[in-house]
Amino acid sequence: MKDKKKLRSQEWFGGNDKMGFVHRSWLRNQGYPDDYFRGKPVIGICNTWSELTPCNGHLRDIAEVVKRGILEAGGVPFEFPVMSLGETIMRPTTMLFRNLASMDVEESIRANPLDGIVLLTGCDKTTPALIMGAASVDLPTIVVPGGPMLNGKFRGGEIGSGSFNWKIKEKQDTHEFSDADLLEAEVCAARSAGHCNTMGTASTMATMAETLGLTLAGASSIPAVDSRKKVMAQMAGRRIVEMVHEDLKLSDILTRPAFENSIVVNAAVGGSTNFIIHLQAIAGRIGVDLCLEDFDRIGGHIPLLVNLMPSGKYLMEDYYYAGGLGVVINALGDLLNEGCITANGKTLTDNYQAAKCYNPDVIRTRDNPLNPAAGIAVLKGNLCENGAVIKPSAATPELMQHRGRAVVFESMEDYHARIDDPELPIDKDSVIVLKGVGPKGYPGMPEVGNVDLPKKLILQGVKDMVRISDGRMSGTAYGTVVLHVSPESAIGGTLALVQDGDEIELNVAERRLHLHVSDEELAHRRTHWQPPEPRATRGYVKIYLDHVEQAEKGADLTVLVGKSGSTVDRDLH
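^ thats the sequence. predicted structure below, dont judge the formating
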């Protein structure tokens, strides 16, 4: 335990002068007693509840449970709202607004009399956005993940929210499902509060938070509506008060070894490719040097132990009942760095010594993995000088080494207009190339990299093709999809120069993505290339376009990288 220091909140509430009067008196209209302002730790509950964010729609209730824990531990809870990001609702993509939400979090924390922070997260971008903002302030902080929804139940089987989405076009084109069938599936897929119940981005981000040490042990996989979620929330409320007394800050937890552990675990659970871009951004905020190659070097040869959609067959509810993340961490053993402190004051590995596996088909052992080497692969080549990524565990093995002719779409609009044209010159060996969907190009780098296949090929029984873009894909998705190509096409990366018929070679084993066009021809094409018109001339999107970094750096804003700390020198009067 560190030496006890003066609470930050007392800079607001501790004075017997005009400003002390001002800061306390207006809060009195809520009926708070004197001892709320006399040296108790003040805890901010950062809530991403919103009716427009269905995955976080239950966080109002969770906040009340967290408050109970804070009060029991002698703290003072103040809940405050921040921008929420509904993955399934917001256009053009929540990724465009992740950095904006992080700014809201950072400035809300810094500007207010808070000693510790509880982050209520759930839907995909809410977790990294909140952690990024909190990291730039660096106070004692704990994350309470909202949890996955219950397994979808459909016609005697199970249906995964998210992963089923990518089957809809095929089922419509083949007439396997009628409109009535799809409506029934729609109602069955998301049948309880919580985020997607596959190992999509939301579950990946919760796993990331727990593996980094930012949650209580076991918090990431508890279903949203399980009573144990509320128990965990209450205990987190108690623990954040202790963390304030201990002065256990984010910078004490978010160390380089902790980031390395997170990379290893993400590979073992078959986590989303979005993990890379969000972990990079968090590392940039807290000041940990993390490069794209680290994800392959550290995680590229880790066995896949968790049999969950989209890489396997089970869902998050099954994973929790099988023992959850603790079993995975125990199984990884010597592949993890020891000594990484977590929010409960214990080390990551110490937290899970008693974890047991209750279903060995859901959580495998290192001797019997689902895939012997399933970490995200980082590709390099003349088509992606700064890197690209692919998720082998979600890809077709036969396509991991492939050479085919490019069928190029200059934009999403171009893709939608032509993909189902019966005359489109495309076959199963073609490589679909999608441009203009990177950080600047869309803008916001949407989850469109796993574009649907052409109808005529679906009717031929084709299930997968190599697809390449500068965009992202949902963590619930699958396929042989090359993502995050950098530099992106909108700023003149080589991807911008690809033409129909060019031969592209993918070799995942050799970590190579090569465009078989001569340097001389590419130079000639470049002389005729024109950058696209900016997608905005004002507002936040203009700021985003002016400052967003490329994918391999986390797509944060240049002006947000790093931290300003918690000190505010000037008062309001």
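The CA atoms of residues 286 and 568 lie 19 Å apart.
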